[in-house]
Please model this.
Amino acid sequence: MPPNLVDADNHSVDNMIKANIPKASIYELRSSISVLSGDGSTDHLNNILTADVSKLNNGERVDALVCDSNGRVKDVLSCFGIDGEIIILGIYENMEDTRSLITAGIPWNKNLVLYDAKDALRHCVIHGEDALELVRLLYPEVSDVPDQTFVSIGDVIVSKNSASDIGHIDILYRADDDSIERRILEKSIGVGTSDEWEAVRIRSRLPSAKEVDGTRLPSDIGLGKLVSLNKGCYPGQEIHARLDSRGSEKKHMITITSHQPIVLGKTKLEGGLTMEVTSATEYDGGHVALAVAPKEINKGAVFTLTGLEYKIG
Amino acid sequence: MGILGGGGFTLPVVSEVEVVDVSIDMTDAARSALSASMGGDEDTHVLLISAQSGGCSGYMYDMAIVEAPETSGFQIIEIDKIRVFIHNKDSVMLNGIRVDYKDSLMGGGFQIENPNASKSCGCGQSFS
Model:
């Protein structure tokens, strides 16, 4: 532990960490949504992604990363197999680069077509400890949402996101279908604002475009679980295999809480350690932030900078 | 009906890739090796060079001597009476490549140097 980081289980900022996290709420997100169609679409995607999608069947879901040849994460995708086509859900800000990668690499003799579905389909998430209970309230016909699959209710698909450690269920629906909105109204379920989602996302350590900016390794931002080391070649595979065999993951993503605003960017700590705050927002009268930090900085530590106090959550 | 089904439900196609006029360079060693590989079939067969997703750097080259395909969508470059076909969709990635041939038992064969590639993997078949 660096000299300026002390164990602080009973520290005053603990109260903020223990502040009520909503058990589950629903949030509408702006996401990249595309549809890949044609024979060989799973094989084509499999050449690009960090997880094996070659056997994606109807009704199944695979979460994976798009990385560059240096192993840095460029997008986080969820692929849904549906009637011979693949719905590809990704980060909105990274949409153009990912689409270019997919279309430029289509073999000349394959009739694969990528469609833009970002206006025709919508994406919302139910996030929180009791996410499944909220899904059941919204859709009483759904008893469970098994991993790596999705449930179809008419034009709506409901699916669990494996990238999150906390309950996180994606809902995709057609923009011309207002059935989900009617159900939300009927059940008097509150929909979280984008500011509320940002705070929840940060507290749950879910990376967004601010973290997935093409400069970080999967393990730096908590996405190592979406990398398969035995699926064969994909961009970045050599780097990921080397990191795994040498056990040299040096960074991880942490949350920071403080009563003072948290400044974005790199911060040098005593002991020679540097962390980079990537996202920050106000929350419940205080401030929360996400940072990519050396693994020496652990949960529960407290540090001070220019007289202000911060806690690693 | 399903999320992607139903009459009247259509989606716009993501725009096609950019197309440029392709030029390539081929060393004397590559011309000689290619001529030998053709075995006198220049009238009916062509060299097809293409790129597709794959490998550890993002894209992979493919070179094959094939029966001349339909010319639609291809750019045709003639080198020493051998026709080289490159598809329009690969034109940006393959424009300006230099094809060489190395006569070596290990790591020999046709090699591609690509000025558009920011990185190539050790085997030389994958680039980004």
